[in-house]
User: What shape does this take?
Amino acid sequence: MRKIIYKFSRPTYLDFQATTPTDYRVLDAMLPYLTNQYGNPHSKTHSFGWETEKAVEKARSQIANLINTQPQSIIFTSGATESNNAALKGLYGFYGKQKNHIITTQTEHKCVLDTCRYLEDKGVEVTYLPVDSNGLISLQQLQESIKSNTLCVSVMLVNNEIGVIQNLKEISRICHQRGVYVHSDMAQAIAKIPVDVQDLDIDLGSISGHKLYGPKGIGALYVRRKPRVRLQQIIHGGGQERGLRSGTLAPHLCVGFGRAAEIALTELPYDIQHVDKLYNRLLTGIREKIPQIQINGSLEHRYKGNLNVSFAFVEGESLIMAIKQVAVSSGSACTSASLEPSYVLRALGVKEDMAHTSLRIGIGRFTTEKEVDFLLDQLSGAVRKLREMSPLWEMHQEGIDINKIEWTQPH
Amino acid sequence: MIRLFSKYGASSSKMVTFYFKNKDNSLTKVTSPIGQNLLQIAHKNEVDLEGACEQSLACSTCHVILPKQLYDKLPQPVPEEEDLLDLAYGLTETSRLGCQVKVDEKFENVIIQLPKATRNFYVDGHKPKPH
Assistant: This one.
């Protein structure tokens, strides 16, 4: 009998923290601005400009509605990385003479940490707050770290690697009592959990378009207007976007972002329900089929679409390669290129051997039950095979405590 | 009888004296009746403060920097003024639009700093005349 060999088809996508597929409704909204309506939204003298300006302003209000603020508080940027840079460098540029202390956490996204490192070179003092084993910062420690020259506190709302949700409302309350600005990288939170910037009382917030089924290359920065937050712009020019971000806006990207935000607002309850259901299926499945696992990050304060799991005695990269037909990530996309184990997991207190075994599974709007079942199948099979090959697993089975072994010999 | 055509006609004869610090750090002493705004006073005394939109709250070229004690004592600017200040060159925490600030006794002997430039590009050294 002839064996029919199927060509390897595209893997199942389960890496929704890295990026999300562009919703087709978003693509529909974008197409006119990539074909017929090509005007520059800042052209004030003719209808080509007026029509694209109208579309951009509509998108702005769609995004503002999603986070419960006015459209004038939203500045379009090229993404959350630019928004984070603009917020921190902007605050320092404007208020830096008297206020040159910044507080952030050890689990922030690299763009925040790298910006803080850059500002340290410029003479800013930065406090990196540690997190507990659940991934949450201590409010007591935050209170104690605030000094008279503290400029701002930057804490991400939902962590991209472990999905943990920080208590931002309480953080804002503590900071505003002491006259400190609050910035939050909300890229992984928007359209995943309800975000109300008035309720959270933050001053600056970064949003990323491609995390909410919108196009890549666009983001936004929420800049509070009452009381007004002033920033020194990092991109100078003609003064677009309230002088904070000069440059011609891309109508197709803005419109796509706006439509994605509008969809997110109406579909958020359904999305949350869908993700919750799949998360329960996934978690139960992993716990049943695979022994010796550890979930990284608080199970209670968590966005359920992000599950970071460590599989003892199995190496993470080889596991990912063993489950070729599923696309997941180890750590986060932006750290995939570097060889160091995740600094987020290290901050949680996860030992290096477990950090190397971790996998991040992301569930989203378009994930199906079948995909979750497929992942569980592949994962349990691969973990079993890899453990059979693992001498450490063998030793564990025999009851030897791995931590007590002296691996190196003096010579 | 010549009737002064001015919305802000001199309301009282009480005068106040203060200084404008120019871009080259020289001081210009000015004396004005109370109730005039800073832009009018600057134009009367040939101080280099541009006022492109003629006090209609549509530009940021009359941007001035006040000393902190004086800034704190003045009433809060309206959101429209704040929006325009966002666009001003060399913005500081104590910046105001000169056409929106009326002088009174609090201004006695203060130094009002002019910013180094405005949004309009005069990198060739051109100085616009008041109109």
Observations:
- The radius of gyration of chain B is 14 Å.
- The mean pLDDT of chain B is 87.
